[in-house]
Amino acid sequence: MAPDIDSRTSEARADERDLALRWSARLSLTPRILAVNIFALAMLAGGFFYLDSFRARIVDDKVEQAGREARLIAQAVAMTPPDDRNALVLRIANEAGLRIRLYDHSGRVRLDTKALGLHNIVLRDPDKDPWNQTAARILDAIIDTVAGADRAPQFRERALDKGLDWPDLATALRTGEASASVWRAPDRTPVITAAASYGPEGAVFTTDNAREITQTVRIERFRLGVVLAVVMGLSIFLSLFLARTIVRPLRRLARAAVRVRLGRAREVVVPRLPERRDEIGHLARSLSDMSQALRARIDATEAFAADLAHELKNPLASLRSAVDGLANVRDPELQERLLAIVRDDVHRLDRLISDISEASRLDAQLSRAKFESVDIVAMLDGLIAQRGERGIAREVRLRFDQPMGPIPRVMGEGARLERVFENLIDNAISFSPEGGLVTLSVATVDDRLEVRVEDEGPGVPEEAREAVFRRFHSVRPDAEAFGQHSGLGLAIARTIVEGHQGTIGVESREDRMRGARFFVRLPLVQPG
User: Fold this and answer.
1) Burial class of 16 by CB neighbour count within 10 A (0 to 12, 13 to 18, 19+)
2) 64 is in which domain, residue-wise?
């Protein structure tokens, strides 16, 4: 028995390890479901940070474009006579949305579209912007900080004669190559400057406040935020709905299980949730069936205890009377009769306790039994031979109608099945008349093996055919002395047969002769 217990314990521990939750064991299902869904949404929220790389690519393209524009403007200025340059530069600056300045090699401004009256590049004062623009700038700063975006230097105007302080202009005048840079306006929008040499006279310097880049990013971020908000709201709603459909029935089942554990099984109604066809519905119905089986087991145990107390009272009362009488009786013959009563009562109690002990252990022993292939025909042959050697009371005859062909085997525990047929044979012999015949036969019916035990006794009334299998139900022949049977033989037989997934019952004989026919049906050994 110990190895069985140890193996079950090790299997239970393995299941516990397999089902254990290492990190979320202390959280209920509702926050777990919410956490999983919100984590998925957090991955979607990463799109906000993807917008930073999107903005960086746009700015890089804009810087490259500004360098090309500066070169083209420089070429146009170089090809235009000095007197016509003002009109040309104004027209280009107006169409391209740029502030254009021409510097000489000393860094002094020779032409400025702003001085010519074109004010198309005006940096906004953040302190004068409405609240929504302020909120947008704060959000920009937060996302840039979290994403670790590179921060462009602050844009500050240079004096008119300090053109060489512009890095792009100094590079263009020194190398003759175009150069462009990105700056940050006070309202966090990018300012792109570019410079290109137009010959020995000097260089072109352009300024562009690329607000459209910030506007594009903010528009995309707003759209993503709306989608994220809608999805998050829907996800939270569905998560709570899912948690409600899972957690609430589980809590109800847990409360019912606690009440069963506290010993109030008769009052507990475990919800079966018949409308649910998922795992929780299966669990609810399994728990309900388990509680009903437990209730039936408790009722059977209590009924067994009550019947046991009743059965023990009779021999104990008789034994007490006999013992009390021995103390007062002096007649040797009467004393011998009282001693005979004591011996009979002690024998009856011993047999009753032995049968009760076996009946109470049967379920547990059958659940651990290892079934093997059993030849029922050979078993019945042996039982009849043993019974004939011991002798049979009242000259009752035993006959075994051997089957014509081979009979398949059954799976079971041989010693237990022997006990079933011994009980049935004993029962048939005890009810048989003087010189009566008890017939045993074996046949296959569908996928089961059927064993029949027929006698020529008084038979069993139809209304009592279920009662004879109850514990302590003992209707004995008139010629039999009281107390020879415990009333557990057929109950033990039924327990053993049902433990083998079989059935046992009693019915009238097919030949219409007087007597009863008990039958046992057992599943055959499956081929393969």
Assistant:
1) exposed
2) 47-209
**How far is the C-alpha of 195 from the C-alpha of 183, rounded, in Å?**
14
Asked if 66 and 100 sit in the same domain, the reply is yes
In the sheet where 448-454 sits, what is the strand order? 397-401, 437-445, 448-454, 516-523, 503-508
| Domain CATH number, residue 429 | 3.30.565.10
Tell me the CATH number at 328.
1.10.287.130
The residue assigned the tokens 């740029």 is 98
Radius of gyration, CA atoms only, the chain = 51
Question: Measured between alpha carbons, how far is 523 from 506 in angstroms, rounded to an integer?
Answer: 18
Amino acid at 114: K
Does the residue 487 lie in any domain?
Answer: yes
Q: What one-letter code names the amino acid at 333?
A: E
**Which amino acid belongs to residue 236?**
I
Residues 56 and 204 in one domain: yes
Which positions ≥6 away from 491 have C-beta within 8 Å?
359, 469, 470, 471, 472, 473
CB contact at 8 A, 88 and 77: yes
Per the structure, the count of domains in the chain is 4
Mean pLDDT, rounded, for 406-427: 88
Tally of CB atoms within 10 A around 119: 9
Q: How far is CA 95 from CA 56, 91, 417, in A?
A: 25, 6, 106
For residue 219, which amino acid is it?
I
* Same structural domain, 138 and 255: no
Rounded CA separation 456/508 (Å): 11
pLDDT in tens, 47-105: 666 677 778 888 889 999 999 999 999 999 999 998 999 999 999 999 999 999 999 99
Q: What is the pTM assigned to this prediction?
A: 0.47
User: Are the C-beta atoms of 402 and 517 separated by less than 8 Å?
Assistant: no
